[in-house]
Write a structure and sequence with these properties.
The protein is 36% helix and 22% strand. The chain is of the alpha+beta class. The chain has a single domain, classed as Roll (Structural Genomics Hypothetical 15.5 Kd Protein In mrcA-pckA Intergenic Region, Chain A), CATH 3.10.290. It has a five-stranded antiparallel beta sheet with strand order 4-3-6-7-9. A two-stranded antiparallel ribbon has the order 1-8. Helix 1 packs across helix 2 (26-34). The radius of gyration is 21 Å and the shape is elongated. It starts with 5 loop residues before the first strand and ends with a helix. The model has no long low-confidence stretch (mean pLDDT 89).
Amino acid sequence: MNDEHIHDEPLRIDKWLWAARFFKTRSLAAKAVDGGKVRLNGEGAKPSRALKRGDELAIRVGELEWVVEVRALSRQRGPAAQAALLYCEREDSRARRLAAMAQRKAQPHPAAGVKGRPTKKDRRQIRRFTET
């Protein structure tokens, strides 16, 4: 993503989200915007809504949420390092997101205690549990 790909003309939200690497495809970005997962300046938006420098986007992907300010507009998707130059994440948003990621990592995986197939004793316990 060179300077020739960065411009000041308004750009569709779904194209920018794709170029900034928040979503893998433009259609996923459009579905997220339609589904209310992306808010522009505190309001809901449509995928075709024009985005300009200085706009604030709240983007929810799964359990994580970013609140970013648009710094540059690009029609072309590039490497992650260059895509990060298109926006600036707010400090409080970054702190919340990192805390949520740390909390998720700290929780044990649901199947962590399961080791292989149930034994005959385990099957009997499961059967007794499901019958009652």
